[in-house]
Design a protein that fits this description.
Two copies of one chain form a homodimer. Chain A has eight helices and six strands; from the N terminus they run βαβαβαβααββααα. In chain A, strand 1 (3-7), helix 1 (16-24) and strand 2 form a beta-alpha-beta unit. Chain A is α/β, with parallel strands linked by helices.
């Protein structure tokens, strides 16, 4: 699965969040980092090929006035044209995934009914929901990064895991895919006995879980009969 | 009352809608037409003064991907800065009006639950609702222009009236202000007896309406006692 991370950030060199995200995907062959603000202009053929090659597109940006910075809109206005990337029957984008990595400086709880910002991220992202509905993109739940500057190292590690999973797992919300991701990662620490043991442990639990899920599923079929 | 019409349209010379709107406000001293896409850059002092001078700000644009074209976002990102146009206590924008003139090529009925576009304009404009809530701007209902190309002359005239009223009336939704606007306009046709008569007629109806409203209001007070 190929993932295109479309980054919209006019001052990326001053953003610790974006630097952290960029470093955390170093070495992942299936992920392309594409920073819009440094592009001089958009060549339609190259942009179309870039989109075509991706199974998943991620819009990654800091929230400026409840939207992405202007560069994402410039790209959409210039490249996402009717008959080029979509048409009445779907087109190039249909069936691909659309995900979001949205950062902001307020606590996450501010973005809800009764919170300081009054609107939820799901509401604020409505224009992108409409865009996905129009083009046949499948929406993934947004990954939000609230107050990166105040995160502990453990919180940053958890973010890194969720970010890598969003970018690489076919279904990043599925528990068993998340578990498998941990198992695969731990197995790569060849020299570490601890890593191997943890991986075995996770694998055992994963197997047990799947057996239980199968049992419950069988029981439900019995009920239905 | 001074109104600043902030126009975001990258190809305005090809837009009959925008040309029509521009012509329909020619000669209105209280209205400033400000086309973002022809600005080379934004001088912060000049932009701040422009905003300060306005009692009402109108965002006027064609709907591109369920939002304004990129130039409006460029302006907001560059000019609407914390401590410049707003702060924790409100700031420059507090108490001003924010209105919208939004054009699109689909029928108006497409923008609703169950319609082709699935989302209403009120939902699509959520980022601007959040912006207004943050800065203390008072929202006016959007003026939507659906399928301008198919409008009859009578429909265009009706649009012109609603547009001028949105830009010049202190409370453009109030029936009596709309009526007064017609009366004022008709009186200016000095040479036209018909215009005078129509104005008299409207004025009489307006007086009668206000008397009735007062009577109803008195009755309600009586009920409450």
């Amino acid at each position: 699965m190929q993932t295109l991370v479309v980054v919209s950030h006019p001052k990326i060199e001053t953003s610790n969040t974006q630097q952290f995200l960029k470093e955390s995907i170093a070495g992942l062959d299936s992920v392309t980092w594409y920073h819009l603000d440094v592009q001089a202009e958009f060549d339609l053929a190259a942009e179309t090929a870039r989109i075509q090659a991706a199974d998943r597109i991620i819009f990654q940006f800091p929230l400026y006035w409840y939207s992405a910075p202007a560069s994402l809109k410039q790209w959409l206005d210039a490249v996402w044209l009717k008959q080029v990337v979509y048409n009445e029957h779907g087109g190039l984008l249909t069936g691909k995934d659309l995900g979001f990595v949205v950062s902001f400086s307020q606590p996450a709880r501010d973005y809800q009914l009764g919170g300081r910002e009054q609107f939820s991220l799901s509401e604020i992202l409505t224009p992108y929901r409409a865009l996905a509905a129009k083009t046949g993109l499948r929406l993934l739940p947004p990954l939000t990064i609230a107050q990166f500057a105040y995160m502990t190292e453990a919180q940053q590690q958890a973010l890194l895991v969720r970010y890598q999973q969003l970018l690489t797992l076919p279904q990043p919300q599925k528990f068993n895919q998340q578990a498998q991701w941990f198992i695969d990662r731990l197995r790569t620490y060849q020299s570490s006995t601890l890593g191997e043991l943890a991986a075995d442990q996770l694998q055992d639990q994963q197997d047990a879980l799947e057996r239980l899920q199968q049992t419950i599923s069988d029981l439900k079929v019995g009920e239905a009969e």
